[in-house]
Specification:
Two copies of one chain form a homodimer.
Chain A: H1 3-13, H2 18-26, H3 30-37, H4 42-51, H5 54-63, H6 66-75, H7 78-87, H8 90-96, H9 102-112, H10 119-122, E1 127-130, H11 136-145, E2 152-159, E3 165-170, H12 171-176, H13 183-186, E4 194-195, H14 200-209, E5 214-218, E6 224-229, H15 230-248, H16 265-282, H17 284-292, H18 294-299, H19 302-305, H20 307-330, H21 339-368, H22 380-411, H23 421-443
Parallel strand pairs in A: 1-2, 4-5
Antiparallel strand pairs in A: 2-3, 5-6
Chain lengths: 445, 445
Amino acid sequence: IQDKAWDKLEALLSKMPAIEVAEALQALEPRKALRVLSVFKMEAQASVFVDLPAKKQEELFNLLDKRRFSKIFQEMPSDKRADFYQSLTATEQAALMPFLSKAIRENVLELSAYPHDTAGGIMNTDFATIRLKMTVSQALEKVRRDAPSGKMLYYIYVVDEQKHLVGFVTLKRLVLAEPTQNVSEILHTEYIHSMITDDREEVARLIEKYDLVAIPILNEYDQLVGIVSHDDAMDVLRKEQSEDLQKIMGIRVADEEAGYLETPVMRHFSKRIVWLVALAAFGIISGLVLHQYEGLLNKLVVLAVYMPMLADTGGNAGSQSSTVVIQALSVGEVKFSHWFKVMLKEASISTMLAICLGVLAFAKVAFLSSATELPSELSLSYVAFVIAVAISLQVISSSIIGALLPLTVKRLGGDPAVVASPAITTIVDITGLMIYFGLASWLLL
Amino acid sequence: IQDKAWDKLEALLSKMPAIEVAEALQALEPRKALRVLSVFKMEAQASVFVDLPAKKQEELFNLLDKRRFSKIFQEMPSDKRADFYQSLTATEQAALMPFLSKAIRENVLELSAYPHDTAGGIMNTDFATIRLKMTVSQALEKVRRDAPSGKMLYYIYVVDEQKHLVGFVTLKRLVLAEPTQNVSEILHTEYIHSMITDDREEVARLIEKYDLVAIPILNEYDQLVGIVSHDDAMDVLRKEQSEDLQKIMGIRVADEEAGYLETPVMRHFSKRIVWLVALAAFGIISGLVLHQYEGLLNKLVVLAVYMPMLADTGGNAGSQSSTVVIQALSVGEVKFSHWFKVMLKEASISTMLAICLGVLAFAKVAFLSSATELPSELSLSYVAFVIAVAISLQVISSSIIGALLPLTVKRLGGDPAVVASPAITTIVDITGLMIYFGLASWLLL
């Protein structure tokens, strides 16, 4: 690229939001990306760096001399900085350390100390504090003084000398108040907070429930040690929901997730094989059941023809009921104690479904098997009737199993998402075959 | 409840966040709930009212005289107010109207005019504006003057005389700036925005992508007409994801969603029956395929015994690949143009899966069917081998179909979520049976 084009590109990029610059840089070769990056102010360089994918960050880190990188590093949001630090090898960490100020060094080490699935693991320390005895104008003065660009100032936290959280004021309220008023007059003393060891999903749900911009995080001494902001909460919720769907489909969820195309084949394989093998192994039971009825199948091949219909319909009905129950569980609307209510509800819903699907099954058998040879003692409509009844019973039992199984797993402390679609399908296959052949050997033999 | 207890309850409630008060009120009989509500300031009453479920809001609305209700109504956030207004009957709307100020009346009518799945339908008008030529202190003065409690002041929008959006400043930057500076000196002129007719999910995704607290909404003349805030975006994303999961499981998604237990049986039924019947009807094809092979089944009943294994394994493998592709599509990582890459990737992954599952299938057949009588010209290990090969081919074809079908549906302008689990299962059942019996009649007859 010529110098002129470069100037143009730079002028263009400097007006774009950080995430878009990051997206543009991804397409560039690392040295070129670095050159583009260097036209920005340090603060903007940090914002762009944070928005790059991990692989690109690593490339740039390796190219940059550590003194220069430390300048970008210091401007990164504290949580992203700690995450990046943790992604480095011990040697790389040691190479970077000498160029960091003591405060940054301590901050990085502190934030790296918490497990990443806790509030401590996703919090940042970019918040501002004031004291209770300040006036509004003193408070604003303090905020002006120690609020460099990166800080979240939507809420300003009020702490005592021991850093205990006393309450908060919003910047808005501070601005709207009279300068001579006391902070204590405009203080909110009732605040929502999380503890540093809380699960990160709980923290995200609190932010969602109370519509917060950020939530203060306290340590075991009730000292304010960090905040989690709404955009991090959104990331957590987004990640959680996509993981849930994967679990539901029998895909093992890993900690670090790259995109579909980036993830190597071997990794995809290892995430999928576990459940597939487990379910296939479990399927031995349906093989055993069928094995019992080989004689019956031999006599009435027509029964084999409708086995897929039985399996599909049962699996679909069970998947539906398990999905709605898992969703109701995850928003906390349904609890284990509701199991009887849920069962009654599913029994009513599925009876209606069963009637429709039974009639359809009867029509299907009568239509498709009209040419099939049957033993002389059986009429086609009688066989169709028995199959339709079996399908109906299968729909009802699958719906009830699909609803009660997640409740039970939840009750036992497990994750209800794992007994969704594929697991339910495999389980109701077994009950379905037992119903089908049980009924057939009773009524058709 | 005695008066003394009431006082206590009220004292307790007044310290709680609105959403918790709303949760507490739900348990109370409407008249009692009203009495509790009346101890709050009008502003707090509005916050609590907004957090009540629709049914409870209706009850309270019917109990309250319209003059008193209009006071609560005026304090509600503008978007929630318009939503509630739309939920009223024409008679109720007419009864409320005379008690509203002209400004509120116009605001409600304006916000009610947009389809609820667009930016206009979820936006609110609780934002503050300043002019470009103001100084920082004049701007702060204006914000102080016309910012009653409900306004979002995180961003303050800068507009010209025709209400065209020129840029924005953050309250933080305004507070940190020198009072004598000009607004134009601290202005951000590059802003992310949405148009009023944009899909609400796109708006929510912009807020998520750019980590915004709110996004300005422009009309066709580029005038600033509203904002959508981060908590509303979170609601949209949450709703979207739960709807996606329902779609994936073949549950029809309705506009207004009540909880699982609240939703009447009939409504659950109507949401589930459509796909179940459609899939069952589509299943006629697998019936037709099987019908073709009745002779073969008659001769080799052992084939029937392993049909469920074939169907389950194929369905599970197909569900997995469709899930990961649907997720990659929804975050925009994969596009239709990647189809060849996706196909190659799934071919490699599924070949590895196929080898494992094929070996497992061979072992299963050899173990379970050791006692089965076979025609004298066939050995058990040969039959097991053929079944294992069929299962392997089924895993590969299901994975590829599961991955390519959502891509195709997306390309055709449809929603890829509808061709997930149940649909894929039904489709790969058909291809699976064709592979299975095709291979069997070629190698075993």
